[in-house]
Amino acid sequence: MPTYNERENLPLLIDQLGSLGMQDLKVLIVDDNSPDGTGAVADKLAAESGGTVSVLHRKEKDGLGRAYVAGMTRALAEDSDVVIQMDADLSHPVSAIPTMLDRIRTCNAALVIGSRYVAGGSTATEWPWHRKALSAWANFYVGVILGLKVKDSTAGFKAWTATALHQVDVASIRSDGYSFQVEMNYRAARRSLKIAEVPIHFEERVEGASKMNLREQLESALTPWKLRFQK
User: 3-class DSSP state for residue 211?
Assistant: First the structure.
Protein backbone atom coordinates (compact mmCIF):
# COMPACT_ATOMS: atom_id res chain seq x y z
CA MET A 1 0.00 0.00 0.00
CA PRO A 2 1.91 3.10 -1.20
CA THR A 3 1.22 6.28 0.76
CA TYR A 4 1.96 9.96 0.32
CA ASN A 5 0.01 12.40 2.49
CA GLU A 6 -2.70 9.93 3.52
CA ARG A 7 -2.74 10.43 7.31
CA GLU A 8 -6.53 10.88 7.44
CA ASN A 9 -7.37 7.88 5.28
CA LEU A 10 -4.81 5.35 6.46
CA PRO A 11 -6.30 4.51 9.91
CA LEU A 12 -9.74 4.06 8.34
CA LEU A 13 -8.37 1.69 5.71
CA ILE A 14 -6.43 -0.37 8.27
CA ASP A 15 -9.65 -0.73 10.29
CA GLN A 16 -11.51 -1.90 7.19
CA LEU A 17 -8.84 -4.47 6.38
CA GLY A 18 -8.90 -5.73 9.96
CA SER A 19 -12.68 -6.15 9.77
CA LEU A 20 -12.22 -8.78 7.06
CA GLY A 21 -11.11 -11.21 9.77
CA MET A 22 -8.49 -12.81 7.53
CA GLN A 23 -5.97 -14.50 9.80
CA ASP A 24 -3.06 -14.56 7.34
CA LEU A 25 -3.49 -11.01 6.01
CA LYS A 26 -0.46 -8.76 6.47
CA VAL A 27 -0.35 -5.08 5.53
CA LEU A 28 2.81 -3.39 4.23
CA ILE A 29 2.66 0.41 4.06
CA VAL A 30 5.25 2.01 1.77
CA ASP A 31 5.55 5.67 2.71
CA ASP A 32 7.54 8.18 0.65
CA ASN A 33 8.47 10.52 3.52
CA SER A 34 5.05 12.18 3.52
CA PRO A 35 5.30 15.77 4.79
CA ASP A 36 1.90 15.49 6.51
CA GLY A 37 3.20 12.85 8.96
CA THR A 38 1.66 9.77 7.34
CA GLY A 39 4.83 7.84 8.16
CA ALA A 40 4.41 8.50 11.89
CA VAL A 41 0.74 7.48 11.71
CA ALA A 42 1.80 4.28 9.92
CA ASP A 43 4.39 3.52 12.61
CA LYS A 44 1.74 3.96 15.32
CA LEU A 45 -0.65 1.64 13.50
CA ALA A 46 2.12 -0.93 13.10
CA ALA A 47 3.03 -0.76 16.80
CA GLU A 48 -0.62 -1.35 17.75
CA SER A 49 -1.22 -4.15 15.24
CA GLY A 50 0.59 -7.00 16.93
CA GLY A 51 2.67 -7.70 13.85
CA THR A 52 -0.10 -7.45 11.25
CA VAL A 53 1.01 -4.06 9.92
CA SER A 54 4.56 -3.12 8.93
CA VAL A 55 6.04 0.01 7.35
CA LEU A 56 8.69 0.56 4.69
CA HIS A 57 9.98 4.13 4.86
CA ARG A 58 11.53 5.62 1.72
CA LYS A 59 13.59 8.79 1.94
CA GLU A 60 11.80 10.78 -0.77
CA LYS A 61 8.84 10.85 -3.16
CA ASP A 62 10.22 8.77 -6.01
CA GLY A 63 7.10 7.88 -7.97
CA LEU A 64 4.28 5.41 -7.52
CA GLY A 65 5.98 2.78 -9.68
CA ARG A 66 9.11 2.73 -7.52
CA ALA A 67 6.96 2.48 -4.38
CA TYR A 68 5.11 -0.52 -5.82
CA VAL A 69 8.37 -2.22 -6.81
CA ALA A 70 9.82 -1.65 -3.34
CA GLY A 71 6.71 -2.99 -1.62
CA MET A 72 6.28 -6.01 -3.87
CA THR A 73 9.96 -6.88 -3.60
CA ARG A 74 9.70 -6.77 0.20
CA ALA A 75 6.54 -8.90 0.16
CA LEU A 76 8.22 -11.53 -2.02
CA ALA A 77 11.27 -11.53 0.24
CA GLU A 78 8.93 -12.27 3.16
CA ASP A 79 7.51 -15.32 1.31
CA SER A 80 4.03 -13.94 0.65
CA ASP A 81 1.82 -16.28 -1.37
CA VAL A 82 -0.37 -13.53 -2.80
CA VAL A 83 0.44 -9.82 -3.05
CA ILE A 84 -2.45 -7.36 -3.20
CA GLN A 85 -1.78 -3.81 -4.34
CA MET A 86 -4.24 -1.07 -3.46
CA ASP A 87 -4.43 2.67 -2.93
CA ALA A 88 -4.62 4.16 0.55
CA ASP A 89 -7.24 6.79 -0.35
CA LEU A 90 -10.27 4.51 0.26
CA SER A 91 -11.10 4.40 -3.46
CA HIS A 92 -10.65 0.61 -3.62
CA PRO A 93 -13.33 -1.44 -1.81
CA VAL A 94 -11.81 -3.75 0.81
CA SER A 95 -14.89 -5.95 0.48
CA ALA A 96 -13.66 -7.16 -2.93
CA ILE A 97 -10.50 -8.78 -1.53
CA PRO A 98 -12.09 -12.15 -0.59
CA THR A 99 -13.56 -12.41 -4.09
CA MET A 100 -10.19 -11.64 -5.66
CA LEU A 101 -8.50 -14.31 -3.57
CA ASP A 102 -11.25 -16.78 -4.43
CA ARG A 103 -10.58 -16.25 -8.15
CA ILE A 104 -6.95 -17.16 -7.58
CA ARG A 105 -7.90 -20.32 -5.69
CA THR A 106 -10.76 -21.54 -7.86
CA CYS A 107 -9.89 -20.25 -11.35
CA ASN A 108 -6.12 -20.64 -11.25
CA ALA A 109 -5.72 -16.94 -12.04
CA ALA A 110 -2.23 -15.47 -11.74
CA LEU A 111 -3.53 -11.90 -11.64
CA VAL A 112 -6.94 -10.65 -10.54
CA ILE A 113 -7.89 -7.05 -11.27
CA GLY A 114 -10.51 -5.07 -9.39
CA SER A 115 -12.18 -3.65 -12.48
CA ARG A 116 -14.44 -0.66 -13.09
CA TYR A 117 -15.22 -1.72 -16.64
CA VAL A 118 -16.52 -5.28 -16.46
CA ALA A 119 -20.20 -6.03 -15.92
CA GLY A 120 -21.18 -4.87 -12.44
CA GLY A 121 -18.25 -2.45 -12.09
CA SER A 122 -18.56 1.34 -11.95
CA THR A 123 -16.67 4.57 -11.44
CA ALA A 124 -17.30 7.18 -8.76
CA THR A 125 -20.63 8.94 -9.13
CA GLU A 126 -18.88 12.20 -8.22
CA TRP A 127 -16.73 12.08 -11.35
CA PRO A 128 -17.71 14.65 -14.00
CA TRP A 129 -18.51 13.27 -17.44
CA HIS A 130 -15.18 14.35 -18.95
CA ARG A 131 -13.20 12.46 -16.29
CA LYS A 132 -15.25 9.32 -16.90
CA ALA A 133 -14.72 9.73 -20.65
CA LEU A 134 -10.96 10.20 -20.24
CA SER A 135 -10.66 7.09 -18.07
CA ALA A 136 -12.67 4.97 -20.51
CA TRP A 137 -10.68 6.34 -23.46
CA ALA A 138 -7.35 5.59 -21.74
CA ASN A 139 -8.32 1.94 -21.32
CA PHE A 140 -9.57 1.69 -24.90
CA TYR A 141 -6.34 3.34 -26.13
CA VAL A 142 -4.13 0.87 -24.25
CA GLY A 143 -6.18 -2.11 -25.35
CA VAL A 144 -6.02 -1.21 -29.04
CA ILE A 145 -2.27 -0.52 -29.09
CA LEU A 146 -1.19 -3.52 -27.04
CA GLY A 147 -3.97 -5.97 -27.86
CA LEU A 148 -4.66 -6.57 -24.17
CA LYS A 149 -7.82 -8.50 -23.35
CA VAL A 150 -8.21 -6.47 -20.18
CA LYS A 151 -11.12 -4.11 -19.59
CA ASP A 152 -9.43 -1.99 -16.91
CA SER A 153 -5.75 -1.76 -17.87
CA THR A 154 -5.02 1.27 -15.67
CA ALA A 155 -6.53 -0.18 -12.48
CA GLY A 156 -4.34 -0.11 -9.38
CA PHE A 157 -6.32 -2.65 -7.33
CA LYS A 158 -4.89 -6.10 -8.08
CA ALA A 159 -4.03 -9.44 -6.53
CA TRP A 160 -0.92 -11.21 -7.84
CA THR A 161 0.36 -14.65 -7.05
CA ALA A 162 3.98 -14.60 -5.93
CA THR A 163 4.83 -16.86 -8.87
CA ALA A 164 3.36 -14.34 -11.31
CA LEU A 165 5.37 -11.46 -9.83
CA HIS A 166 8.54 -13.48 -10.24
CA GLN A 167 7.62 -14.30 -13.83
CA VAL A 168 7.01 -10.68 -14.83
CA ASP A 169 10.26 -9.70 -13.06
CA VAL A 170 8.67 -6.88 -11.10
CA ALA A 171 12.04 -5.59 -9.87
CA SER A 172 12.99 -4.58 -13.44
CA ILE A 173 9.89 -2.43 -14.09
CA ARG A 174 10.82 1.23 -14.65
CA SER A 175 7.44 2.70 -15.60
CA ASP A 176 5.63 4.99 -13.19
CA GLY A 177 2.05 5.97 -12.36
CA TYR A 178 -0.62 4.43 -14.58
CA SER A 179 2.14 3.27 -16.92
CA PHE A 180 3.31 0.89 -14.20
CA GLN A 181 -0.10 -0.79 -14.21
CA VAL A 182 -0.11 -1.07 -17.99
CA GLU A 183 3.40 -2.52 -18.22
CA MET A 184 2.70 -5.08 -15.49
CA ASN A 185 -0.46 -6.22 -17.30
CA TYR A 186 1.40 -6.37 -20.60
CA ARG A 187 4.19 -8.49 -19.16
CA ALA A 188 1.66 -10.85 -17.62
CA ALA A 189 -0.18 -11.20 -20.94
CA ARG A 190 3.06 -11.74 -22.88
CA ARG A 191 3.91 -14.59 -20.54
CA SER A 192 0.45 -16.12 -21.07
CA LEU A 193 -0.48 -15.76 -17.41
CA LYS A 194 -4.18 -16.09 -16.66
CA ILE A 195 -5.75 -12.69 -15.92
CA ALA A 196 -9.20 -12.36 -14.35
CA GLU A 197 -11.25 -9.27 -13.53
CA VAL A 198 -13.85 -8.82 -10.80
CA PRO A 199 -16.25 -5.86 -10.70
CA ILE A 200 -15.73 -3.08 -8.18
CA HIS A 201 -17.25 0.32 -7.54
CA PHE A 202 -14.44 2.87 -7.54
CA GLU A 203 -15.01 5.53 -4.87
CA GLU A 204 -13.79 9.11 -5.05
CA ARG A 205 -11.33 10.01 -2.29
CA VAL A 206 -12.80 11.99 0.61
CA GLU A 207 -9.60 13.37 2.17
CA GLY A 208 -6.39 14.53 0.47
CA ALA A 209 -5.65 15.20 -3.18
CA SER A 210 -4.83 13.16 -6.26
CA LYS A 211 -1.10 12.74 -6.97
CA MET A 212 -1.45 12.47 -10.78
CA ASN A 213 0.62 15.09 -12.64
CA LEU A 214 1.27 16.13 -16.25
CA ARG A 215 4.52 14.15 -16.51
CA GLU A 216 2.71 10.94 -15.53
CA GLN A 217 -0.09 11.68 -18.00
CA LEU A 218 2.42 12.07 -20.83
CA GLU A 219 4.28 8.93 -19.82
CA SER A 220 0.99 7.03 -19.73
CA ALA A 221 0.27 8.10 -23.32
CA LEU A 222 3.71 7.08 -24.60
CA THR A 223 4.24 3.84 -22.68
CA PRO A 224 1.92 1.60 -24.76
CA TRP A 225 3.86 2.54 -27.91
CA LYS A 226 7.19 1.89 -26.19
CA LEU A 227 6.01 -1.52 -25.04
CA ARG A 228 4.66 -2.43 -28.45
CA PHE A 229 7.87 -1.66 -30.32
CA GLN A 230 10.51 -2.63 -27.77
CA LYS A 231 12.65 -5.70 -28.36
Answer: coil
